[in-house]
Amino acid sequence: MRSISVRSALFLALGAACACTVVDSPEGPGTGIVPVDRLKVVPQSLVLPSIGATATIVATLGPVDATDREVVWESSDSTIVSVDARGVVTARAPGAGVFVTAYSHDRSRQASANVTVAP
User: Fold this and answer.
1) Cα–Cα distance list, 5 to 10, 12, 19 (Å)
2) What are the pLDDT digits (tens) for 93-115?
3) Single pTM value for the model
4) From CA 93, how far away is CA 75, in angstroms rounded?
């Protein structure tokens, strides 16, 4: 698990005092980057009743102050189930065992939902 330490410091710049917060992260000291450390999807299992049916899979990233909160979606078989950039899945053909996966933008975290399209 990655950890982030925050320490407060007092800097003197151009003769004036400035209270600053320096954030150290795995990306480098003082970058201010807060990485995603968890990702989950709801629901984790879904049955679409017919071709053309849609549903939304919701991805939740943590921590709440993560710097890059973008989610990238992929379907393991887009001929059966497609997914758009908002997590909306659409049934394209009958089938089972299709995984719709949400990735953190940097692909360091992922979570999947198992989607079935009823015949």
Assistant:
1) 17, 22, 17
2) 999 999 999 999 999 999 999 99
3) 0.73
4) 13
CATH topology of domain 38-117: Immunoglobulin-like (2.60.40)
**What one-letter code names the amino acid at 53?**
A
Structure-token pair, residue 47: 């049955």
| Residue 92 CA: distances (Å) to CA of 7, 42, 56, 58, 78 | 52, 21, 15, 20, 8
- Give residues with Cβ within 8 angstroms of 74, minimum separation 6: 83, 100, 101, 103
Quick: pLDDT tens for 61-105. Answer: 999 999 999 999 999 999 999 999 999 999 999 999 999 999 999
Which amino acid appears at position 16 of this protein?
A
pLDDT at 10: 28
∠63-47-95 over CA atoms, to 5°?
115
Domain residue extents for the chain: 1-33, 38-117
